[in-house]
Amino acid sequence: MNRLTSMLKTYYNLELPTIQEQKGGWASLAYKVSIGTEAYFLKVYEKQRASTPKYTELINDYAPVLKWLEENTELNGHLPVPILTRNDSYTCEDDQAVYMVYNYIEGDTIGDTKLSQSQIIHLAKLLSKLHTFGEKEIPMNLYALKESYDLPFLSQLTKSLKAIEKLPTDIRELLWFYQDPLEQLLSEMKRLASSLKNAKLTMRLCHTDLHYWNLMQTSNQLILIDWEGLKLAPVEADLMFFVDKPYFKQFLDVYRQRHNQFKINESALQFYQLRRKLEDIWEFLEQLMIDRLEGRARQHTINILKKELSTLI
């Protein structure tokens, strides 16, 4: 904790903090920082993780957008905005990690629970508001956030399948069983990406990671957290998380109150559903092969990977 204490003092002028570890997400470790009656949320992206560059390289592109949304739109109070360092930066870092600090939000993630009727309506309204903003509405350059339909993990996953005999035994045996459906999925992803690049679909700001662990309920409102995946993309990048929910018709009815001409593009929906599945599979493989997990952590990741792969057949 001494390293964190020193960092907080040096970059944020926060002295004598009490630091408590919280349940972190997929991308980062998390801590609650308390100083008297003030509380902050600290995200720590460890540099030893192979996935960290993916989650940190666009911070300086997406954080200003969040700040603008917070200050200029109806989304005020519904998304966390990082606190600037004393050098007016959204992050600071040392040789071990990249750090971001936010005001602490008192609330609970939805997680494994079900959304209530009021939460469904609230969420649909929040997304309908977010999806009103495109390149013309945001007064900054969004080029780095714009969907390109590129699939950087695809070549890495393909190389792993071609060199399957060189992989560790537990991974090799698992991938051998699912190699054919995986290769078929990779081929379909390439086809969809090529098609969508030429489709010129309307793009709007999208969160792109709207599972229930990224939805937080406070005493009076719903908040969308963990915006590392903020993109300018077809709205199917967000709606894919809800199309299979029993409440989707109700959700869409509320959403269409603001976007009354909206119709789902099935190709875009399929692209984002398949990309999410393949990205998850690759990240689990990446953890096993590059982060070199051992013991219980390795077996836990193997079990999750096996569960993901089992959905392919």
From TrEMBL:
Domain Aminoglycoside phosphotransferase: 19-260
TM helices/strands, residue ranges: none
Pfam families on file: APH
Gene Ontology MF terms in the entry: kinase activity
Assigned keywords, A-Z: Kinase, Transferase
Alphabetized SUPFAM superfamilies for the sequence: Protein kinase-like (PK-like)
Protein name per its UniProtKB record: Thiamine kinase
Organism per entry: Virgibacillus massiliensis
